[in-house]
């Protein structure tokens, strides 16, 4: 087993352990009767951490060594994504969650899309997905969880 494969498995194990600890600590939060309370979101996050850590371990064990050796880091994509995240953080409070997230998701989809998925058709699909996901998250926080996100210049929602 190669060193990078061992690192991936170790990372998966660490995520599972941290997720289990996080989940354990979630049950220490005082609960109130009802479906959604103070520990609902932390429980979901804990379960997701354990699940994703398990998937990481499983997928790493499934990987073939030739695929592992042929992987290379695309520095341009890493730089573009890092820059985009920094810009997103900088404008988040000024232009608000909704608009900044739509723009961020759309540009991130464009950066990560394979070359055969960069035509006009996918441009529109990526825009629609960015808008719908941003609206869904915004509405979930605002009306479902009663948590206000920065509104910025979009004040009609």
Write up this protein.
The chain has 157 residues and is mostly helical. The protein folds into two domains: 3-70; 75-144, no CATH class. It contains six helices and no strands. The protein has helices at 3-26, 40-62, 65-70, 75-95, 97-112, 120-144. The longest helix is centred in the C-terminal third of the chain and has 25 residues, at 120-144. The model has no long low-confidence stretch (mean pLDDT 84).
How many separate domains? 2
Q: Whole-number radius of gyration?
A: 20 Å
Give helix % range: over 70%
Beta content: under 5%
Low-confidence sequence ranges: none
Which series of helices and strands comes N to C?
HHHHHH
Q: Report the strand count.
A: 0
Multimeric status of the protein: single chain
Q: Give the helix/strand class.
A: mainly alpha
Could you give the topology of this structure?
Blueprint: H1 3-26, H2 40-62, H3 65-70, H4 75-95, H5 97-112, H6 120-144
Please provide a brief summary of the model:
The protein has six helices and no strands. It is mainly α and 157 residues long. The chain folds into two domains: 3-70; 75-144, no CATH class.
């Amino acid at each position: 087993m190669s060193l990078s494969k061992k690192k991936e498995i170790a990372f998966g194990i660490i995520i599972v352990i941290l997720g289990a600890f996080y989940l354990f600590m979630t049950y220490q939060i005082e609960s109130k009767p009802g479906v959604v309370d103070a520990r609902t979101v932390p429980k979901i996050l804990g379960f997701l951490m354990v699940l994703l850590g398990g998937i990481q371990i499983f997928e790493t064990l499934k990987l073939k060594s030739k695929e592992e050796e042929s992987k290379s880091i695309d520095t341009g994509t890493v730089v573009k994504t890092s820059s985009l995240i920094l810009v997103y953080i900088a404008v988040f409070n000024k232009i608000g969650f909704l608009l900044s997230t739509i723009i961020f998701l759309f540009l991130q989809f464009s950066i990560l899309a394979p070359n055969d998925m960069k035509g006009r058709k996918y441009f529109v699909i990526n825009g629609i997905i960015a808008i719908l996901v941003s609206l869904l998250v915004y509405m979930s926080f605002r009306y479902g969880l009663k948590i206000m996100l920065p509104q910025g210049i979009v004040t009609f929602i």
